[in-house]
Design goal:
Elements lengths: L3 H22 L3 E8 L4 E8 L1 H4 L6 E3 L2 E5 L4 H16 L3
Antiparallel strand pairs: 1-2, 2-4, 3-4
Length: about 90
Amino acid sequence: MVTLDEFHGRREALSAGLQELRRERRLNLAGLLVTDIVTQGSLLLVDGDADLLDLIAYPRLAGELFELKGVLSRKKQLVPHLLRAFKESLPG
């Protein structure tokens, strides 16, 4: 059984992988959503520009780790939230 405890044990390696992906592809932001269907919540691990991280309006557990209670779907819940936040941050 995979639990969020296992995620926490691999967090440093996953974070390093996100940093590498971001560097290789020249991205402003890279992230990984890990969902626990039993507790009906997710953790979002990100690597990105500090100003983009500040736009993620979920509780921050640590510098690059966010808690998303009730979020189970990237497509229906997370992506629309992030797109709206990033769009609202654009100048003009």
